[in-house]
């Protein structure tokens, strides 16, 4: 049997998501994820697959000890390519692996590499250098790239960069008001932006939903998760986003500080320039504190936004009531996050409504927090009631759709000047599309 499957691998700071598609039909064959990779408790992963006339099967695994990314991915690969799942051909059926790489540096297209290519090592070295600018993600993703080159030597590995979608941001918005460094840096110190694969997928979904060409869609998107960002999309292209030269700028996250006074870290951590070891890599103590010891967890002891919301707004009927300390710290965290989010979204929506087109097709909520937190969505939309009142449009929040709906859906009533949607993004779909295009057109560099 010829190679007929495409594998998408999406590494997070403590997770690995993976999907296996039919190359001809784009039908999903296997889907799964691993959590708590290199965490304090056992790593777990699960996946579903279909065989025997579409019957769905589910497998779950738990691995004791602090398992490395390479070790758990090797186990995933063994399970996913086993006889039970793919038949005797196993690994030989995988034609390409699409890898989500958060930071692509100056790359202006996906990069295709294959085991034994003359430029294989040079590409790996180049991407390792860029990893300094996204230490929570790039390093892990590149470890998996190396595993795929070793264990799937006949397959193409295609590096799909989150930064590509934001290359249309105007230079005046990409430039920082700081002098050029005296030393050479691996990449220019400008705004790159991230979550680009998600934003591209959401744009495509909304273009289809609205029946418009991609290049005519105007969106403001909030991709909200443990790491979150916002993006302003005009005529199908990114023209502004909240993350910067690294994913640290912009919104606070589960363990990230988000934007703050640049000099704060020197007072908070006087030895911030010293080097610490994290996940087998040397990073500055400042990077570690701002990326791993900040955000929601620093404010209220948990990075779970659902827990934060339930503690901040407990119901009288709840069996377990939060302590006063948990209640107050969670309420503060929620208010801080909402305030930061509104600051960005207000600017983006104003920018869109005051543009020559003057049209906002949708305010989109996505990501784990964006899709699940009906309270946060309602609180955001309450900020824009004045727009509806000025327009006398009779729009506003559709409470039932916001509270009870599932999947891609509109959560404001017809006539809303700020039409809001919830969209479940699929970075893996976008990665495979991008990788297929790179191979077919030969445009990857």
UniProtKB/TrEMBL annotation:
Protein residues bound to substrate: 100
Gene Ontology biological process terms in this record: acetate metabolic process; acetyl-CoA biosynthetic process
Keyword tags: ATP-binding, Kinase, Magnesium, Metal-binding, Nucleotide-binding, Transferase
Catalytic residue positions: 162
Pfam families xref list: Acetate_kinase
Pathway terms, separated by semicolons: Metabolic intermediate biosynthesis; acetyl-CoA biosynthesis; acetyl-CoA from acetate: step 1/2
Site (Transition state stabilizer): 195, 256
GO molecular function term, any single one: magnesium ion binding
Alphabetical list of HAMAP family matching this protein: Acetate_kinase
Protein name, entry field: Probable acetate kinase
């Amino acid at each position: 049997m010829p190679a007929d499957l495409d594998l998408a691998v999406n590494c997070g700071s403590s997770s690995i998501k993976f999907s296996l598609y039919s190359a001809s039909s784009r039908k999903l064959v296997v889907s799964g994820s691993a959590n708590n990779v290199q965490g304090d408790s056992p790593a777990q992963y699960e996946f579903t697959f279909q065989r025997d006339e579409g019957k769905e099967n589910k497998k779950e695994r738990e691995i004791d000890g602090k398992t490395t990314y390479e070790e758990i991915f090797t186990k995933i690969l063994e399970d996913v390519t086993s006889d039970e799942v793919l038949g005797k051909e196993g690994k030989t059926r995988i034609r390409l692996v699409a890898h989500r790489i958060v930071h692509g540096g100056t790359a202006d297209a996906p990069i295709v590499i294959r085991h034994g290519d003359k430029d294989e090592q040079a590409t790996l070295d180049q991407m390792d250098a860029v990893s300094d600018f996204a230490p929570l993600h790039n390093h892990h993703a590149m470890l998996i790239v190396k595993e795929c080159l070793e264990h799937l030597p006949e397959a193409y590995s295609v590096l799909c960069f989150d930064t590509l979608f934001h290359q249309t941001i105007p230079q005046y918005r990409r430039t920082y008001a700081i002098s050029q460094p005296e030393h050479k840096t691996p990449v220019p110190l400008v705004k790159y932006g991230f979550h680009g694969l998600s934003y591209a997928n959401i744009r495509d979904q909304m273009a289809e939903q609205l029946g418009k060409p991609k290049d005519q869609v105007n969106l403001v998107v909030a991709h909200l998760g443990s790491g979150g960002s916002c993006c302003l999309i005009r005529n199908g292209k990114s023209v502004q986003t909240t993350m910067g030269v690294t994913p640290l700028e912009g919104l606070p996250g589960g363990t990230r500080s988000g934007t703050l006074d640049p000099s704060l870290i020197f007072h908070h951590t006087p030895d911030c320039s010293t080097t610490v070891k994290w996940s087998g890599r040397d990073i500055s103590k400042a990077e570690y504190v701002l990326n791993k010891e900040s955000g929601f967890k620093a404010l209220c002891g948990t990075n779970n936004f659902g827990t934060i919301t339930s503690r901040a707004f407990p119901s009288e009927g709840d069996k377990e009531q939060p302590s006063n300390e948990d209640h107050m710290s969670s309420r503060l965290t929620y208010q801080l996050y909402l305030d930061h989010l509104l600051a960005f979204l207000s600017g983006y929506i104003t920018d869109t409504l005051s543009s020559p087109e003057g049209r906002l097709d949708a305010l989109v909520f996505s990501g784990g927090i964006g899709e699940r937190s009906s309270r946060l969505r309602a609180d955001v939309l309450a900020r824009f009631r004045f727009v509806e009142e000025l327009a006398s449009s009779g729009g506003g929040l559709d409470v039932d759709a916001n509270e009870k709906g599932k999947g891609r859906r509109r959560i404001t009533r017809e006539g809303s000047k700020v039409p809001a949607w919830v969209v479940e993004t699929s970075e893996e779909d976008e990665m495979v599309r991008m990788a297929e295009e790179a191979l077919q057109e030969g445009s990857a560099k």
